């Protein structure tokens, strides 16, 4: 009985160490891949306020960069008031919440900055 318990404990420790080693090696390989492909730049998505090629009269232009700038998607939103009314017509879903958050983000950022300055 004691022999089987020791054997089970040794197997459990070996499995734990194998999984830990595999996980750490996968993280290391992912880090090396990121360094190789993107030169150490962030791989996640980044949202920029204005498009580089958009005229200055288009303040509602946005650019989404994916893969450390490898892919860039540009879009512009119509008037925020008009978009707010359009989002009211959507059923309750994640897209509706994301559109509202995107529309309200500049105003909320200004309010937060004013509150921080007021403190």
Strand order of the largest sheet: 1-2-3
User: Gyration radius, to the nearest Å?
Assistant: 25 Å
Tell me the series of helices and strands, N- to C-terminal: HEEEHH
Strand content: 5-15%
Helix content: 55-70%
**Backbone shape:** elongated
> Helix- and strand-based class?
alpha+beta
Mean pLDDT: 76
User: Total number of β-strand segments?
Assistant: 3
Task: Report the sheet with the most strands, covering strand number, pairing sense and barrel closure.
Answer: 3 strands, antiparallel
Flag low-confidence runs.
none
The count of helical stretches stands at: 3
Distance between the termini: 68 Å
Textual characterization of the structure:
The protein is an alpha+beta fold and 119 residues long. The protein has three helices and three strands, in the order αβββαα. A three-stranded antiparallel sheet has the order 1-2-3, with no helix packed on it. Strand 2 and strand 3 form a beta hairpin. Helix 2 crosses helix 3.
């Amino acid at each position: 009985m004691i022999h089987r318990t020791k054997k089970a404990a040794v197997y459990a420790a070996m499995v734990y160490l194998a999984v830990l080693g595999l996980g750490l090696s996968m993280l290391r390989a992912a880090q090396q891949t990121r360094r190789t492909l993107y030169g150490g730049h962030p791989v996640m998505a980044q949202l920029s306020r204005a498009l580089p090629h958009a005229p200055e009269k288009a303040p509602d232009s946005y650019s989404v960069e994916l893969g450390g700038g490898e892919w860039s998607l540009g879009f512009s939103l119509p008037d925020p008031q008009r978009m707010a009314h359009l989002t009211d017509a959507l059923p309750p879903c994640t897209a509706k919440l994301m559109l509202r958050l995107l529309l309200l983000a500049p105003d909320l950022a200004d309010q937060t900055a004013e509150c921080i300055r007021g403190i």
